[in-house]
Amino acid sequence: MTDFTTWLQNPGLTHYLMVSGLLFSLGVFAVLTRRNAIMVLMGIELILNAANINFIAFSRYSSGTLDGQLIAVFVIILAAAEAAIALAIVLNIFQNFNTVNVDEINRLKD
Amino acid sequence: MDLFTIIFYFFALVTLVSAAIVVFSKNIVHSAFSLLFSFFGVAGLYVLLTADFLAITQLLVYVGGILVLLIFGVMLTNRVISVDIKTGTIQTLPAVLLVAALAGTLVGTFWSTDWKLLDMVQEPISTAPKLGEQFLTNYLLPFEIASVVLLVALIGSAMIARREKTLN
User: Has residue A35 got a pLDDT over 70?
Assistant: First the structure.
């Protein structure tokens, strides 16, 4: 138990990993359960953020180089591109189906 | 308990609580706005990890770009005025079980693994010049490809979202 309290009092690599693991799980939960396509996108953003925390935490505590931060920049770039494309697709779906609930969109063609 | 510890727990709490609100809130607008605080919390964690450039990038790209885009999406795809903007959930029970197992596995692995740690954590330095140098030397090819990806995404999303010209 004293082990655990000393662990709590000294934030280090594992603390960031725990935060990112929980953030990842929350993101996966959003992707799995929400019906609205935009909520699914928000879940994906949470997942990408969790991955980025991992990259930067390892870059700081484990490797000591900037490689993790460089990869995190690319993750952010791809997240931006993904959000733009996904939103465009969602808007197009809304025009065609008049809904963005992922469980009601089950036709490829009208 | 020193200041660093307190700030770390503050940002970690902000991130996780806001993320929980994002995931569990029934109102999609509440979700979108608590995503803002979640991104802020992550930016704070980046600052604590001495990634100053990335913290600013996080604020600019996520809060300034992606979040605004998501809120646009919410506003354009939900009949805000007529019908309520609540959203339902599906497959809740299997998802709860799966995610609990996933979170347990992740936390357990992170806890029990003997991570390779540096003996001495480096002093905080300004990372922006070093990142720029790396982008133009070792990471030049991915950097150029990323610019092409952004251009393709720009043109592609404009093409997809464009309204079809209707005859008559």
Answer: yes
DSSP B48-106: HTT-HHHHHHIIIIIIIIIHHHHHHHHHHHS-TTTS--B--B-SHHHHHHHHHHHHHHH
Work out the minimum CA distance from A101 to partner chain B, whole angstroms.
8
Q: What is the mean pLDDT of residues B48-66?
A: 91
**Length in residues, chain A:** 110
Compare CB distances from A39 to B28, B106, B116 and report the shortest one's residue.
Answer: B28
Burial A16-53 (b: 16+ CB within 10 A, else e): bbbbbbbbbbbbbbbbbbbbbbbbbbbbbbbbbbbbbb
pLDDT band at A25 (very low <50, low <70, confident <90, very high): very high
According to DSSP, residue B27 is labeled: B
Q: Describe the crossing of helices B67-77 and A37-58 by its angle, rounded to 10 degrees.
A: 170
Task: Look at chain B and count its residues.
Answer: 168
Q: How many CB pairs under 8 A join A and B?
A: 224
Q: What would the mean pLDDT of B57-73 be, rounded to a whole number?
A: 89
